[in-house]
Amino acid sequence: MAGYAVAIAAFKLFLLTSPLAIVVVVSLVVGLLMVVLFGYTSDQKAIGIAKDQLKAHLLAVRLYRDQIPVVMGSYGKILRGTGRYLKLAFKPLLYVIIPITLLMVQIDRYLGATPLPPNAPFLLTVHTTGSDALNDVTLDLPPEITMTAPPVHVPAGNEIVWRLAGSKEGKYEVKIAAAGQSAAKAVCVGSDLARISTVRLRGQFWERMFSSAEPALPENSPIESISINYPDRNIEIAGYGMNWIWLFFILSMVAGFIFKELLGIQI
Predict the structure, then answer these.
(1) Contact present, 248 and 27 (Cβ < 8 Å)
(2) How confident is the model over 211-248, as pLDDT tens digits?
(3) Residue 191 maps to a domain
């Protein structure tokens, strides 16, 4: 029994720490939820009729391909039937796509990038509202993070770039001050799976929703964004590196089609 408990605990730990395992499990669950949600929110009978009519019109094109008037009429019916099918499927697809998109945004916080390796240089970029504010920007670092080169000012882009390095694993805050105001940016060093925000933004609600996991910078701040060049995460499949979103898309679609057949749901 003790060995069984250890095996179960090891398996749970693998699921929680392996990006590949997380993507596979989430893809299977999402594939099932997509199909079930589509089935409950759609008119299954009407969709079935629309699909049968499309099949009949396509068959007519093949059977009567030598009769031009019949073929042209069938093509017109195919176009109308496709429009009718898309109308029936549009609302259920919204119910499916919106929550899945929000879920993918949250998962990407963990799987989209890897934390910074200890003692490896990385870039921190601050974008200001104007070139005049560049000379007022200062950087305050925790003891675990050091500057490895002087800052580079880019007046044309209203940017300052620092090259930094973290000495040991952990999550830290660097503080940037400008024009009497300060802002902090989280820096994640070393952990295998951690919630990472590559950028902190001022305003830009929709961009923040998809690309930032940190609160917005103050509206009156001279700092428009603070970003870190975290390494992208690739999941290895048979020797090939793949972004987790592509793998999730493929696996969830395959799982969805399998569950569709098992549950008898029209899509």
Answers:
(1) yes
(2) 888 999 988 888 999 999 999 988 887 777 888 888 99
(3) yes
What's the pTM? 0.78
Domain that holds residue 194: 121-228
C-alpha 9/C-alpha 21 separation (Å) is: 15
* Domains in the chain, number: 2
Query: Does an H or E element contain 46, and which?
Result: helix 44-63
82-104 pLDDT, tens digit each: 888 788 888 888 888 888 888 88
CATH code assigned at 166 = 2.60.40
Residues 6+ apart with CB under 8 A from 73: none
Cα 26 from chain centroid?
13
**Any residues with CB less than 8 A from the CB of 18 and at least 6 apart, and which?**
none
Pairing outcome for strands 181-189 and 121-128: unpaired
Q: Are 152 and 195 in contact (CB under 8 A)?
A: no
Q: Are residues 128 and 188 located together in one domain of the fold?
A: yes
Compute the distance between CA of residue 258 and CA of residue 101 in angstroms, rounded to an integer. 21
Q: Is residue 213 part of a domain?
A: yes
- b vs e for 109-131, b when ≥16 Cβ sit within 10 Å of the residue's Cβ? ebbbbbbbeeeeebebbbbbeee
Neighbour count for residue 107 (Cβ, 10 Å) = 18
Same domain assignment for residues 18 and 68: yes
Query: CA angle, corner 162, sides to 156 and 166, nearest 5?
Result: 160
Residues 214 and 129 in one domain: yes
Nearest Cα to 213, choosing from 110, 115, 139, 127? 110
Pair (99, 152) in one structural domain: no
User: Alpha-carbon distance 96 to 145, whole Å?
Assistant: 43
